[in-house]
Amino acid sequence: MIGEHYWESFHRDSLHRMYSITKSFTSLATGLLAAEGKLGLDDRICTYFPEKLPEGGAHPWCEEMTIRDLLTMRTCYESTTFKRYDGDWVESFFRVTPDHVPGTVFNYDTSASHVLAALVEKLGLEDDAPDENGNVRTAQEKETSPAAILYARIIRGETQPRPRCCAAIPP
Q1: How far, in Å, CA of 63 to CA of 152, rounded?
Q2: What is the C-alpha separation between 165 and 161, in angstroms, rounded?
């Protein structure tokens, strides 16, 4: 680094809202999980959140949505879902009535990024599924995986990854 400067009231360790830059970090963490073999970009997002689906399952368009659709903001919604639902933000993504077939229309959508962040947290920090050799990651391995470190340090603003986190990112 050649130089470093902080504007008044901020210093090196100041935490502050990062707004939409977190979408880039969430996408990067999602890519790291894909590289680790924890997910596929063409996996359907509903399969990762069965506990958030309505009784009887999600709308067929919602069921079709892939992780790639969320990353490219081509979901089945024309606007942010949590503004149309009174409750859990991740749950809103699976319960609000879709507007169109996924993968067909681009809409800048915070809901998609929020669901991806919850997916990163779920798979990067809490996944106990065995790897291709039948080994289960230790708590240390979970906390030090590239996706977990990125998630904890950048998205959560922590200096050390936490072993367990809540399922939703605060606004």
Answers
A1: 29
A2: 9
Q: Is the pLDDT of residue 27 over 60?
A: yes
pTM, 2 dp: 0.71
List 66's β-bridge partners, or say none: 44
Please spell the DSSP secondary structure of the chain, one letter per residue. -------TT--TT-----TTHHHHHHHHHHHHHHHTTS--TTSBGGGG-GGGSPTT---HHHHH-BHHHHHTT--S-SS-GGGG-SS-HHHHHHHSPP-S-TTS-----HHHHHHHHHHHHHHHHS-----TTSPPPPHHHHHHSHHHHHIIIIIS--SS--SS--SS---
> In terms of residues, how long is the chain?
171
Q: pLDDT tens, 57-69?
A: 999 999 999 999 9
The residues with which 44 forms a beta bridge, in sequence order, are: 66
Contacts with 85 (C-beta within 8 Å, 6 or more apart), sequence order = 91, 92, 95, 96
pLDDT in tens, 139-149: 566 566 666 66
Rg (CA), the chain: 17
